Amino acid sequence: MTPSAPAKALRIGTGGTSPVTRTLPEEVPVALTYDGSTQAVMMATPSDLEDFATGFSLTEGIVTDPAQIAEMTVEPHDDGIEIRMWLADAQATALTRRRRAMAGPVGCGLCGIDSLAEATRPLPEITARSALTAEQIATATDTLRTRQPLHDETRAVHAAGFLTPQGLMIAREDVGRHNALDKVIGALARTGTDAATGAFVLTSRVSIELVQKSALAGCGMLIAVSAPTARALRTAEDAGITLVALARNGTAEVFTHPDRLTETPHVA
User: Less Cβ crowding at N or C end of the chain, within 10 Å?
Assistant: First the structure.
């Protein structure tokens, strides 16, 4: 399956009507199965699916290391895609104990959880000291925007990236903002790159699930183009994550833990 497809439309307005052709992002059901049982069905963009499955497995706590996924295959079907994974024995036993079903819409980050307590589960405290300059942070989302070919075609997908002092190392796109971040986390894990060495960059607002995923990946900084929710801000503060939001057009607002900036601006 391709990540996009053409579509015809009729443009209307005061100047009359005219036919247009647009490129739209594909959105397909992606089933993630472990040892023969479906754990989740997510609506996702059909690209970088190995990264997506690895990142999802890590941020859902199904594995703690990509090596614990003993085997992975991507199987296209007429009605969607199945990502089949087989786990090491210890992880398979643990998953059997906590099995839960998740079926959700595009990029839903809390679908199917068993309890309210799980939605606000304790997170590891992040002590990563990777430092970025104020200029790198303020221009991060503008840089990510240059690495969004599917968005250029469709104007309808989110992106996530991984920024280090050396530049934007990874970028991934998806119709779901949670999916895009999972793809980046998976790509880092599959290449043995430590998320503590840089920052995640997002084209969306910051919700609690995105902070949770960042903390579970061990990343100490989250930079987003839009604002955070109040709960996301409190969660980032408690987890030791530097939360930067409203990063666009060369400016940004640092809400928590500004000490990771190598050029912290003076506040009067």
Answer: C
